[in-house]
Write a structure and sequence with these properties.
75% of the residues lie in helices and 4% in strands. With 170 residues, it is mainly alpha-helical. It folds into two domains: 1-58; 60-170, Up-down Bundle (Rhopdopsin 7-helix transmembrane proteins). The chain has a two-stranded antiparallel ribbon with strand order 1-2. The chain is flat and about 50 Å long. It starts with a helix and ends in a 5-residue tail after the last helix.
Length: 170
């Protein structure tokens, strides 16, 4: 078995272990809503499935002499929006569900998906100009994600509970 394949399978095992750990923690939630544990379990499960495909030699294609592992993009287009939702739900923990900022959640997820899809199109582009244009669009979407996290989402966290929005290094 080649090293890359072995690493894919080790990653799959790690993700399954992480999902099981979240499941165990969900049995004693300590005030954390069950939907947050469901999101936390879904992230490594989905990622494990994508990397299992790569471990089986699937989820890749060759374009212009370069291998594109599109299974990674399939992983990222689901797992990173879920990570952003988990982050947003943490920031909005003390806000009643009916008052949560759904437009902010949609904006975070939409910008993230645009960023990932632009990366995939850049990776699949044979033309360097097209690749650069897709890359620039993806960077623009990434800057939107950063802006929403570090301004809007952080302010919500600070306003609801100062400890949620402030990082204090040890």
């Amino acid at each position: 078995m080649e090293t890359q394949t072995l690493l894919h399978w080790l990653y799959v095992a790690s993700m399954v272990g992480g999902a099981l750990l979240f499941w165990v923690w969900s049995r004693n939630p300590k005030g954390v809503p069950q939907y947050e544990y469901s999101i936390a379990m879904m992230i490594p499960i989905w990622s494990a499935l994508a990397y299992m495909a790569m471990g089986l030699g699937q989820g890749k294609t060759e374009v212009a002499g370069q291998i594109t592992h599109y299974a990674r993009y399939i992983d990222w287009v689901v797992s990173t929006p879920l990570l952003l939702l988990a982050l947003a739900f943490t920031a909005m923990f003390y806000i009643p569900k009916q008052e949560r900022k759904l437009n902010l959640l949609f904006g975070l997820v939409a910008a993230d998906v645009v960023m990932i899809v632009c990366g995939l199109f850049a990776d699949l582009s044979e033309n360097s100009t097209a690749r650069l244009l897709w890359y620039i669009c993806g960077v623009g979407a990434f800057l939107c994600v950063l802006y929403l996290i570090w301004t809007k989402l952080r302010q919500i966290a600070i306003n609801s509970d100062a400890e949620l929005g402030v990082y204090i290094p040890n």
